Amino acid sequence: MLFGGSRSGKTFTLCAATAVRALKAPGSRHAVVRRYFAGVRSSVGMDTMPKMLSLRFPELAWKYNKSDGCFIFPNGSEIWLLGLDDAERSEKILGKEFATIYFNECSEISYDSVQTALTRLAQKVDKLENKAFYDCNPPSKSHWTYQLFIEKYNPADKVALARPDDYAAMQINPMDNRENLPSNYIENTLKTLPEKQKRRFLEGKFSDDDYEALWKQNMLERNRVKAAPELERIVIGVDPAVTLSNSSDCTGIIAAGRACDGKCYILEDASCRATPAQWAKKAVSMYRKYQADRIIGEVNNGGDLIETVLRSEAPDVSFRAVRATRGKILRAEPVAALYERNMVSHVGVFRELEEQMVNYTGRPGLSSPDRLDALVWAVTSLMENEPRFILA
């Protein structure tokens, strides 16, 4: 596993390692797996892999099948780009056997999904020992990557690894890749980040959970699921940004549902930095996608504008306005308590949302947690009429 800071060359290095293995073994298959197919297609398929191949193997006559997301080498070997974001793409993984599986940005992938994908690390190829590669910008120490590669125990059952030496890890950071970065990127961008983000994106270090934050990483990991059960109610929580500029917050847009046993499931984070018309279109799209019962929108800053822009997009949308009368931490505490009681599960991994959750403390100077606010409104709406739960 390679872990380290932003733009440290992790993806380039492991794409090169995967290509070397493909060239060594004619007819072999290899996979680069990411949570979202759109992400691996744009980042690896259209950027890193072509650049790497042109630099490392300038004479190689490779082809790229864009529709399938597959690099094909003259010796018949293939490197497939695969996403875990829907059933059809997951079936592409389960339908093939591979000699290499490279989990790109694995902090966004659940350990359960990794275990499922590893069942396909089964292609028998001469000259190659089957291997899995991993990279990530290191999240907190309670993440499965730290447990598996640093502490050397199985995140699923907390049992020490039988063969710990098989799990090697190396830390790299952007300073190691300085010659390939813009001249002022490290000094003007990474070194100006808040201290915790600097440790992750510049220094490439795993972080401790913030003891003042309401959420801890293990609260999220222990209840993470691959799919939600049948849901009796679904809402779309919206924390709107009224204007759009480079310094604007995102508009938080979170889909969440409640099952018949009272448990809540976070279905999707569709938050975006957009104009009012654009985020209204996105919120309504989510409303239609999940056949939601209602959109819940905070109206403190936008007032009637919020409902106006939503209804201009969809006049028939069911909308309920909510207004914050207490501070963010006070509103969030009852929802965090539900997580502590294992009453809320995330369907998959929502990296940006979860980073806000485990980092937000309410201390002065922190940016507004737009995704988290939308989640709090959604879960509160789902649970407020449940007599089994106290939310205030």
Shape: globular
Strand content: 15-25%
N to C succession of SSEs: EHEHEEEHEHEHEHHHEEEHEHEHEHH
Q: Alpha-carbon distance between the termini?
A: 44 Å
Sheet with the most strands, sense and barrel status: 8 strands, mixed
In terms of structural class, how would the helical and strand content be classed?
alpha/beta
Strand order in space, largest sheet: 3-4-5-2-6-7-1-8
User: Which oligomerization state do the chains in this entry correspond to?
Assistant: single chain
What is the rounded Rg? Answer: 22 Å
Count the E strands.
14
Uncertain runs are none
| Overall pLDDT metric | 88
Proportion of helical residues: 25-40%
Question: Could you explain the architecture of this structure?
Answer:
The chain is α/β, with parallel strands linked by helices. Helix content is 34%, strand content 18%. It has helices at residues 10-24, 37-56, 87-94, 111-118, 144-149, 185-188, 195-201, 217-221, 276-289, 304-313, 328-340, 351-359, 370-383, and strands at 2-4, 29-34, 63-65, 70-72, 78-83, 100-103, 131-136, 170-172, 231-239, 252-259, 264-269, 294-298, 319-322, 344-346. The strands form two sheets. It has an eight-stranded mixed β-sheet with strand order 3-4-5-2-6-7-1-8, sandwiched between helices. Helix 9 (276-289) packs across helix 10 (304-313) and helix 11 packs across helix 13. The model has no long low-confidence stretch (mean pLDDT 88).
